[in-house]
Specification:
222 residues; Rossmann fold; 2 domains; 9 helices; globular
């Protein structure tokens, strides 16, 4: 499969890198995290809590998540409504992480993601892309960074948007999300056996892009 799978923990820069890499290589970027966040918006709007397994399973049946490209930009639709602007809040992120442990949620998302990759070469990022969603991807990357660096990046992102940022709380949330993602029973976050480890703690975005592109070109030439 002529695609790139990028896995890694929250705040590692997966989305930023995947978007730029897809543009550089002329591939389609699929933000799986945004798809899970759209489903989380669906759950939150229905007043569901993260531990309501039955309610979440039932709500999956009434949610349709789509990815569309408009003027070259990815837009995420939930039941026909563009919810792209709602996806980056902490509440939605936490619900997405917590609800993604449920089999009905993951089954719905994985099927859609695999369908996208079957139609066109993609760069896809998430938690279990190389291990579950695209096990036959040409290149698998495990992109990570220290907890401190990931928290710093998230705090800067929030401040740039004019929002308050409590660095200690953000670190706590990231550590909790890592623990949950790595220990969930279905599709846990882990490095695929044949994935290339890239630690971006002390790398620029350009350096990360160059590293991954070189790995991809090596495999394309084989």
């Amino acid at each position: 499969m002529n695609s790139i799978a990028i896995d890694g923990p929250a705040g590692a820069g997966k989305s930023t890198i995947a978007k730029l890499l897809a543009r550089e290589l002329g591939m389609i970027y699929v933000d799986t995290g945004a798809m899970y966040r759209a489903m989380a918006v669906h759950f939150l709007r229905r007043g569901l809590s993260a531990d309501d397994a039955a309610g979440i399973a039932a709500a999956c049946e009434t949610a349709q998540v789509e990815i569309r490209y408009e003027d070259g930009a990815q837009q995420v639709y939930l039941n026909g409504e563009n919810v792209t602007g709602l996806l980056r809040t902490e509440a939605v992120g936490n619900m997405a992480s917590a609800s993604s442990v449920y089999a009905p949620v993951r089954a719905r998302m994985v099927a859609l993601q695999q369908d996208l990759a079957a139609k066109t070469p993609v760069v896809m990022d998430g938690r279990d892309i190389g291990t579950v969603v695209l096990p036959d991807a040409r290149l698998k990357i495990y992109l990570t960074a220290s907890v401190e660096e990931r928290a710093r990046r998230r705090a800067n992102e929030l401040r740039e948007k004019g929002q308050e940022a409590d660095l200690a709380q953000i670190m706590h949330d990231i550590e909790e999300r890592d623990r949950r993602d790595m220990n969930r029973p279905i599709g846990p976050l882990k490095q695929a056996a044949d994935a290339v480890l890239v630690d971006s703690s002390h790398m620029t975005i350009a350096q990360v892009i160059d590293t991954i592109r070189e790995q991809y070109e090596q495999r394309a030439g084989n």
